[in-house]
Write a structure and sequence with these properties.
Elements: E1 6-11, H1 14-17, H2 36-39, H3 42-47, H4 49-62, H5 70-81, E2 85-90, H6 96-100, E3 105-107, E4 110-117, E5 123-125, E6 144-148, H7 158-166, E7 170-174, H8 186-192, E8 196-201, E9 213-216, H9 219-231
Parallel strand pairs: 1-2, 1-7, 2-3, 7-8, 8-9
Antiparallel strand pairs: 4-5, 4-6
Helix pairs in contact: 5-9
Bound molecules: 2'-O-acetyl adenosine-5-diphosphoribose.
Length: about 240
């Protein structure tokens, strides 16, 4: 393609794998020993709030033991040094893009380091444990929960993301299995808008066939190489 002017990037768990954070659909299909539906649905939160809160408390605490990797850092270089329009949309609830320094960033599935009030919708940064029944500072209801978009709930910033995809000329998907909608449908939206589509993933994904170009390998290698190519006009 000609040099891109407007890029939307979607990242998934694979970009954080080399930092030591488990992906969701690895061998055995368990996420840190749990079925995703046992810790990532509104029903699970109602049925066993202690289990769900504890699960995310442990994931939040584990963030102190991991660091951004070469792929996160490469996307920061792109954000900082590239003059075109850019939006980085992550499905990840870790804070590695943030800590690396990405600015034009949206967390569509929420964030471990944030809490949500189930009563009034207030969202605020949060660190440390979050026991069930914690009171919301905004409305005082005992309704604080992890700010994670559970299955069946609407991801954040969908309108802004779809607008960005409809006006991009390159859509890049990094380290995601393409198993979870609506993110898995972004590539079709991009194609519909006439954008070129590129996948960087360890292995072929459920959606690989929908990309113009699918490059296989570790994100820590593929992403810096791709960013170098964009910055030198050789993408
Ligand atoms: P998955 O675990 O489904 O997919 C991770 C993808 O990353 C797989 O295709 C792997 O092959 C690939 N991968 C693994 N290591 C890699 C590496 N070093 N370099 C490049 N790719 C690598 O994770 P997601 O697609 O992110 O939702 O899952 C989507 C959503 O499902 C998550 O956001 C989560 C989960 O339910 C919520 O938490 C709301």
């Amino acid at each position: 393609m000609t040099d891109p002017r407007n890029i939307v990037i979607l990242t998934g768990a694979g970009i954080s794998a080399e930092s030591g954070i488990a992906t969701f659909r690895g061998p055995g299909g368990l996420w840190e020993g749990h079925r995703v539906e046992d810790v990532c649905t509104p029903q699970a939160l109602r049925a066993d709030p202690d289990l769900v809160h504890r699960f995310y408390d442990l994931r939040r605490a584990a963030l102190t033991r991991v660091e951004p990797n070469a792929a996160h850092h490469a996307l920061v270089r792109l954000d900082r040094d590239w003059a075109g329009d850019l939006l980085l949309v992550t499905q990840n609830v870790d804070d590695l893009h943030d800590r690396a320094g990405s600015r034009r960033l949206l967390h569509m599935h929420g964030e471990l380091k944030s809490r949500l009030c189930a009563a009034c919708g207030d969202r605020a940064p949060h660190d440390g444990d979050l026991p069930p029944g914690s009171a919301c500072p905004a409305c005082h209801a005992p309704a604080l929960r992890p700010d994670i978009v559970f299955f069946g709930e609407m991801p954040y910033a969908m309108e802004r993301i779809e607008d960005a995809i409809l006006s991009c000329d390159l859509f890049v998907s990094i380290g995601t299995s393409g198993a979870v909608y609506p993110a898995a449908g972004f590539v079709e939206l991009a194609r519909h808008a006439g954008a070129a589509t590129l996948e960087l993933n360890l292995e072929r994904s459920a959606g690989s066939a929908r990309f113009d170009d699918s490059r296989l390998g570790a994100a820590g290698t593929l992403v810096p190489a791709w960013v170098d190519a964009v910055l030198t006009g050789a993408a």
